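A quick aside before the break. I want you to see a complete sequence-to-structure record at least once, exactly as it would be stored in a machine-readable document. Don't worry about memorizing anything.
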Amino acid sequence: MAKRRKMTAGQRILQGAREAAAIARGELKPARLDYFTGTPAVGRCKTARHGKIAPAHPGELLAEVMIPATGQSKAEIARRLGISRHTLYAFLKCRKPVTPALAARLGSLFGDGAKVWLHMQAAHDAWHSEHR
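That is the input. The structure line, written in tokens, reads:
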């Protein structure tokens, strides 16, 4: 029996988004419902993360999941975002944080809104400020 590869956090987020879209189109029935709201619980990961492991930088998600899923080059993504390639590469290598302006551009490009990117950056920054 072949071993299943572990999914990264970004891959789980992307899979949840795909499942939520399929449920919205009526192609898929939700496997479970949220206990409090009764809405589909797809994409809501309630797993505990080990306290010694830092939350992923948004650049990691972009580099490992989002850009490869588009099939476009990084230069093309930078052009569509309206930023320089240098800025994009610094972001992908986790050297630059997500600014509200960049979050808005990422949200409009990938269709998930600015809040997702800002929340990821806030969780990343908070963890690093607590563990210095």
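Two observations worth writing down. The mean pLDDT is 80. The two ends are 43 Å apart (CA to CA). We'll return to this after the break.
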